[in-house]
Amino acid sequence: MRPTLFNIGPIPIRSFGIMVLAGFLLGLWYAMGAARRRMAGRKPDDPGAITPDHVFDMALMALFVCIIGARILYVLLDLSEFRERPWDVVKIWTGGISIHGAIVSGLLFLWWYSRRHKLPYLAFADIVAPTFALGYAIGRIGCFLNGCCYGHACSLPWAVRFYRDGQGSALTEPSHPTQLYATAMNLLIFFALDRWSRRKHRDGEIFLAYLALYCVYRFIDEIFRKGATADIFFAGLTHAQAFSLVALPVILYFFFRLRRSPAAQPVSDAAR
Description:
mainly alpha, two-stranded antiparallel sheet, 8 helices, 4 strands, globular
């Protein structure tokens, strides 16, 4: 664990913030390339054309929206912790964000941005979806360095001892490095979505597939975090597991409805 990578004078440079920024920049680079592929044979001023400039402008604003949304949901889910230390709400550099908050706020902002610029929302969401998986995978390395979001005790050879609550000198028992599990699983999701996006598909398929795969990943990952950094919410399930069980059938319903829709003709990035 290395919560602080280095210091610039009296200012600590936090590993969590650096990895989140690295994930954002890598995701932005990928998304601009995906938009460039979709632009093949089209002009920037064609109606509904999503250009790399659109991606860049949207992403810069969405970064702040997602961070705020992620922090708000994290605080709401653990209000008791912040009632005694209300100023800790703004200390986002120490960790403590909810990816569900980032996804929801980011998608709502993307919907607003698409409407404002008269761009196809589902096509734009297809470009963005793999970047969420990529950025999230890199950001979870920041969680590992920060020592938060670890799993329960285990005897596996790759188990890691973390500082309890990410601070102090008390160490946990050897525990699941669930942050690295998350990195591995989300990289697999990213590569699967990237390959899918290069084949014929309907607008919205990649986006809905990401949401479904995220629900599956998160349910599995929470199994290893349960009782350590993920509290039981209901019937032996954590908040994230309960959300995944409710959301997944809804997402799959819309996914298969989209796939069966005769009005939605399959397209591919290369064909645009």
